[in-house]
Amino acid sequence: FSILGEIVVNEVNFVRKCIATDTSQYDLWGKLVCTNFKISFITDDPMPLQKFHYKNLLLGEHDVPLTCIEQIVTVNDTKRKQKVLGPNQKLKFNPTELIIYCKDFRIVRFRFDEAGPESAKKVCLAIAHYSQPTDLQLLFAFEYVGEIYHNPAKKVNGIDPGGGGGGIGSASGQQTPLFETYSDWDREIKRTGASEWRVCSVNEGYMISTCLPEYFVVPSSLADQDLKLYSYSFIGRRMPLWSWNHPNGSALVRMANIKDVLQQRRIDQRICNAITRSHPLRSDVYKSDLDKCLPNIQEIQAAHTKLKQLCVNEPFEETEEKWLSSLENTHWLEYIRSFLKHSAELVYMMECKHVSVVLQEEEGRDLSCLTASLIQVMLDPYFRTIVGFQSLIQKEWVMAGYQFLDRCNHLKRSDKESPLFLMFLDCVWQLLEQYPAAFEFSEMYLTILYDSARISLFGTFLFNCPHQRVKESTEFAISKNIQLGDEKGLRFPCVWDWSLQFTSRDRLAPCVQNGAVKTFKRSKKNYSSTLRGVPPALKNGIISEQEFLPRRNSLILKLKPDFLQQTEGQSNSMEQYFRDWFAKPVDLHGVLLPRISGTQIKLWKLCYFRWVPEAQINHGGFITAFHKVSLLADEVDMLNRNLRQYKSNSTLQGNCSELDQSRMYFRANSLNDTSGAPDFLSSSFPFSPVGNLCRRSILGTPLSKFLSGAKIWLSTETLANED
């Protein structure tokens, strides 16, 4: 265990890792280890059917970070007992089996038939104890950072904690702005041309609000004294926060509710007047009350729980016939559509009506994080680059006080858990799926980013706000006799330092769906619907009237555009804006609008199905086609290099160095490379579900057809009719 500060707390030998429920043929034998960072299964057995796994430098193929564990179930077969283990509970029976349910939809199962019963019990209790810490400072990041400060020469993979890092797969090495300093905010003001806005330092030392960043942007016409005065009227003293400026001068602003009812109208008017004065056209302000028009955090959590139940817990054989209706009943895709639709409406207000938009929410640190981020992804192509997207998350989530500790439930005791960050990544995935060439990154990047929120080494997604990081880490430093000097709290490793997790080659993989290392871009393509009878999108998504008509035997009724029911006049102009936009070719460096009809909002299969062996399509998925394109592009590069060598009579050594600089993730062995697709390519690339609990094959079932994107059947009767 090479991570600084990681120690083994318990282990047991002669453990069997179960690969399938109906046979032990493929099970692995080895040692189950619990450390203060992860659980690990160490085996000398070759993985059955295992072709490929994505190598994470922090986690092996059988490892699960402690913060990724959701539930621990111990079982005794002979006594027919089972128990969900809490952090300080006793276990009155010797377990014969351990089942671990993970937050990323994995299920891992171990058998202790040959292991010592007391040793098995101890390791189960250790996993329960260390995966459910009672205090924030017991999370592994504190242990690691404490070791770093006591041993400054030692670093994980040679990386200092706390840096912004470059983008994953980023060739430029450009640093991600963390928005912890005055200068980062000032640069963003200049980048967006927000000349009537200024960086405010009134919250330095968190003197006004502990859930705001030390620096943020406000209208130039608002004086610091006014801000201090107004702050008392806002929930959490969260004064209005500027997020972004449109080139036409419209601003995007986030604001908590005003709790002082008597002062509400007066303060609200003054804030709106200041925002109006910051607009070059002195345009009105459009306020959107997110609490009234979007699902709340409890509804989102309930939808996620149902989605997990559907994708993981329910046996496929029991749900296959009603799988699609069950998916609809989770409301997950419905909520995705709600966020995309509302964000697109607000894009219209800024882009077409030239008005500033204020996102109002009770505390201003949940729904507004998601909505503000989506609006900027749709409007600003910078946020569709890797470094830009990372800076967006820093600005709108980390620094704006999104409560990662509570919402991700790192301490396993929060009743405030809600996967808003995952929902945001899913919304971005919907846009990425519809306009792949508009993004520098792929769905693989989004999935890895989601996984990184479950690794307790990084400080990025560990705290409820920047002040909590400073307060908790300062207390920890004092308790460990660490000298901070002028630093404001300890510096934790930053998730944007991707070299902590991946080799330089593997850091290119999250960009493969967009071609080579950033330069080889996929061309725009038509997407066939998962529903039969819907033609590929034409003219950027608009389908002409005659093509709304269903084909013979189609399950789809006549479709209608699905945007915006508001006041009649506004609705008409808004609908016209969307119709005009969809009728033109997409400007990949301009505004992006989502297609939100029922056929266009899809389930993010790579994220939710990658650990389900039954759902994997061997030699299937987009990656198989990309592999062929990649080899072809690499052959073209090889021909170009050979031509340059022929013309310049360069040495063989020079040519070899050029060969090593291939832009492609998959490389051709030679010209006219006829080798087939590697065995490790599947629909869950770069992840391998092998080693996680299997149930039974779903080949030929309606769910299998859904996964392959072919058709959707409502019942086996329909299936028989189709055949």
UniProtKB/TrEMBL annotation:
Residues of the Myotubularin phosphatase domain: 179-608
CDD domains xrefs: PTP-MTMR10
Domain of life according to the entry: Eukaryota
Keywords: Phosphoprotein
GO cellular component assignments: cytoplasm; membrane
One Pfam match: Myotub-related
GO terms classed as biological process: phosphatidylinositol dephosphorylation
Family classification: Belongs to the protein-tyrosine phosphatase family. Non-receptor class myotubularin subfamily.
UniProt name for this protein: Myotubularin-related protein 10
Organism: Tauraco erythrolophus
